[in-house]
Amino acid sequence: MQRQLRPLPPYAENFGIALVEAFAAGLPCITTEGVAVSADVRECEAGLVVQAESSALESALDRLLGDADLRIKLGNNARRLAAQRFSLDAMGAALKRLYENVLAG
Predict the structure, then answer these.
(1) Is the pTM of this model over 0.85?
(2) What tens digit of pLDDT does each residue of 8-19 get?
(3) Per-residue pLDDT at 59
(4) d(CA 9, CA 59)
(5) Is a pLDDT exceeding 80 seen at residue 80?
(6) Residue 85's CB: how many other CB atoms inside 10 A?
(7) DSSP states along 31-69
(8) Residues 6+ apart with CB under 8 A from 58
(9) 7 - beta bridge partners?
(10) Cα–Cα distance between 40 and 15 in angstroms, integer?
(11) What is the C-alpha separation between 46 and 76, in angstroms, rounded?
(12) Domain ranges within the chain, ordered by starting residue
């Protein structure tokens, strides 16, 4: 099965649930600064983060389409990001810490 690319400008989704789903599938993604998980994408090199302009999206698509090694690297990093920060276990642990902090005052 060939991996696909997923551009996701912030107008489509503000948090990036579609991105997190793509991460879990190991897909290299393109997003913009307006998506909440864009900082995670940049930090973990799980995709490309660009300005919310058609020319920037076009350049990012060209870059990924022309570089198979980059697609593989970003896809692998994306899968790792999903497991470490957005899996059920990771999110459950974060929610538990949040509740503990609230209860601790």
Answers:
(1) no
(2) 555 555 566 888
(3) 95
(4) 14
(5) yes
(6) 17
(7) EETTSTTHHHHHHHT-EEEE-SSHHHHHHHHHHHHT-HH
(8) none
(9) 30
(10) 11
(11) 8
(12) 6-104
Query: What is the CATH superfamily name and number for domain 6-104?
Result: Glycogen Phosphorylase B; (3.40.50.2000)
**Is 44:77 a contact under the CB 8 Å cutoff?**
yes
Q: What pLDDT, on a 0 to 100 scale, did the predictor assign at position 7?
A: 55
Alpha-carbon 52 to chain mean position: 16
Helix or strand run (H / E) with residue 29: strand 29-32
Amino acid identity at 102? V
Q: Hunting for tokens 């879990």 — which residue is that?
A: 24
Q: pLDDT tens digits, residue range 25-70?
A: 999 999 888 888 899 999 999 999 999 888 998 999 999 999 999 9
Alpha carbons 9 and 72: distance in angstroms, whole number: 22
Of residues 85, 84, 72, 79, the one with CA closest to residue 24: 79
For position 3, what pLDDT does the model report?
A: 56
Distance CA(39)–CA(73), nearest Å, equals 18
